[in-house]
Structures are given as C-alpha cells and as structure tokens.
C-alpha cells in the first residue's frame, strides 16, 4: 500500500472504486470505456470537494470538452482502483482547465491508466462557453 500512497501523493482528490465483474469485456479485462467512467467519478468528486462546483443546468457550470486516456496495464476483477484528479498547473485559460487523472490498481500497486480531461465552463442558459468564474479561479490558484 505504500507504493500506492506514493503514486497518489501529489493528487488532492481521489476516489476508491471496486472493480465489478461486469466491468470486464469478452477479453476478460476491464473495458476501455470503464476507465473513462472511473475518471468521471473522480472528476465529479474533485469538482465537489476541491472546486466546490455544483451542477445547476440553469447557470454556468463545467462540461467535458475532451478526454484522453493512455492505457498502461489491464485491470481485472477482483481489484479496487484509486482514481485521482488534479489540475494541471498553468493549463487553464479564460474558459477551460485541464484535469490530470491516474487509475491505480491496489492489487498490483501500479498505474493502470493516465488521463487528461479538458473542462470548459459553459453557460447553460445562453448555450455558450463562459469565462471561469472568479471564485473557481481563486481555488485553481490555491496550492
């Protein structure tokens, strides 16, 4: 477990997710799309706990613009993954920010995937991108 703690030490937010039997595909490993769902769960936790972003579709909120995933190790059942989230320093601009993810296997104590998600702030009422709210900018600058 010390190896896992060392892998995630620089990430302010994470979630532990048990790998389900149904997460696997015909090739007997976790399907590639499931890794993206794991990252989504971690990102939602990060939004809630660190950025304190709510999900109000009648105002300005965060929306996923793109995501990349580098698969490094096949996960299988049974296992538990720790999925991390953090802002990539200096990745943000007026409208967006990038979040880095790790998917770490507790069983094998290694990184199973690395991901980067670009989040755009979006005005749901006017259906257009919006500037990052000042309150969130302040939290982005916090160590």
**Domains, number:** 1
Element order: H for helix, E for strand: HEHEEEEEH
> Helix coverage percent of residues?
10-25%
Rounded Rg: 16 Å
The second-level CATH architecture is Roll
CATH topology: Thiol Ester Dehydrase, Chain A
How many DSSP-defined strands?
A: 6
The CATH superfamily is identified as: Hotdog Thioesterase
Please indicate the percent range of residues in DSSP E strands (runs of 2 or more): 35-45%
Question: Which consecutive residue ranges, at least 5 long each, have pLDDT under 50?
Answer: none
CATH structural class: Alpha Beta
Mean pLDDT equals 92
The largest sheet, given as strand count, sense and whether it forms a barrel, is: 6 strands, antiparallel
Q: What distance lies between the first and last C-alpha atoms, to the nearest angstrom?
A: 26 Å
Shape: globular
What class would the helix/strand composition place it in? alpha+beta
Total helical segments: 3
Keywords:
143 residues, Thiol Ester Dehydrase, Chain A, 6-stranded antiparallel sheet, 3 helices, 6 strands, 24% helix, 36% strand
Topology (SSEs and partners):
Blueprint: H1 2-8, E1 13-18, H2 32-51, E2 60-71, E3 80-87, E4 96-105, E5 110-123, E6 128-129, H3 134-141
Antiparallel strand pairs: 1-3, 2-5, 3-4, 4-5, 5-6
Short description:
With 143 residues, the protein is α+β, with helices and mostly antiparallel strands. It contains 3 helices and 6 strands, in the order αβαβββββα.
């Amino acid at each position: 477990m010390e190896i896992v703690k060392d892998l995630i030490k620089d990430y302010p937010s994470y979630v532990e997710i048990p790998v389900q039997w149904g997460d696997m595909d015909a090739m007997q490993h976790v399907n590639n799309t499931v890794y993206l769902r794991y990252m989504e769960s971690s990102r939602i936790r990060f939004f809630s706990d660190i950025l304190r972003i709510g999900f109000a579709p009648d105002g300005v909120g965060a929306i996923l613009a793109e995501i990349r995933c580098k698969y490094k190790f096949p996960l299988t059942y049974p296992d538990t993954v720790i999925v991390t989230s953090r802002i990539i320093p200096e990745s943000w601009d007026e409208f967006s920010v990038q979040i880095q993810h790790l998917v770490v296997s507790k069983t094998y104590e290694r990184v199973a995937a690395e991901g980067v998600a670009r989040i755009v702030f979006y005005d749901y009422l006017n259906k257009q991108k919006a500037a990052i709210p000042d309150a969130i900018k302040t939290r982005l600058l916090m160590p």
